[in-house]
Amino acid sequence: MEIADFQKLIEQMYSAKDRARGSPRTFLWLIEEIGELASALATDNKADKAGEFADVFAWLVTLANVEGVDLNQAVEKYAHGCPGCGKMVCTCTEK
Ligand SMILES: [Mg+2]
Ligand SMILES: [Zn+2]
Known about the structure:
Elements: H1 3-21, H2 23-41, H3 46-67, H4 71-74
Helix pairs in contact: 1-3, 2-3
Bound molecules: magnesium ion (MG) and zinc ion.
């Protein structure tokens, strides 16, 4: 599934609830899922990890929908190189 298709899917599934909830509370849900991802990363359960990555991504997409951000368009900033150094293989010095 492409990013744009996934964003549309999430929009169709959840947008009414998401807009009513608003950005600040949607952001809290995203952070909660990031916490769940942190817990999953501490295990050896690959399926759990994958599931939590999906949850984090879904809530990130949800937040983008509430804010009216087109993620397909947003990630374009990485399409032609690192936004920091402009290279396809990053040469930025910070770690
Ligand atoms: Mg979760
Ligand atoms: Zn770079």
